[in-house]
Design goal:
This protein is an alpha+beta fold. The protein has helices at residues 19-45, 81-91, and strands at 52-57, 63-69, 74-78.
Length: 94
């Protein structure tokens, strides 16, 4: 009996033999990394004092808009893009 410990080479280890699983897994990982990278670049290049507007989807699949003005600290949320535009116009009306 030997107390020798041996490790398998990584190419001998397979998580799942189904090639469709591997393709989907790689695609999902790539999309997640790409999305993370884009978010990071946007944050680094964004002017911290610039008005921010973005679209979100809630847990029920409903799309809505959010806006934030760092200069005033005010924010607004609506299901309508037109409402967001009106809020911005009122915010900057003299």
């Amino acid at each position: 009996m030997s107390n020798e410990i041996r490790c398998l080479p990584t190419e001998d280890i397979e998580i799942n033999c189904n090639p469709l699983f591997k393709k989907k897994f790689n695609s999902n990982v790539w999309k997640s990394l790409h999305s993370l990278w884009e978010s990071l670049i946007k944050k680094l290049l964004a002017d911290p004092n610039e008005l921010q507007v973005w679209q979100k989807v809630d847990r029920h699949g409903n799309t809505y808009w959010q806006a934030y003005d760092p200069a005033t600290g005010k924010s607004f949320s609506s299901g309508s893009q037109a409402d967001i535009c009106m809020w911005i116009e009122q915010l900057y009306r003299y």
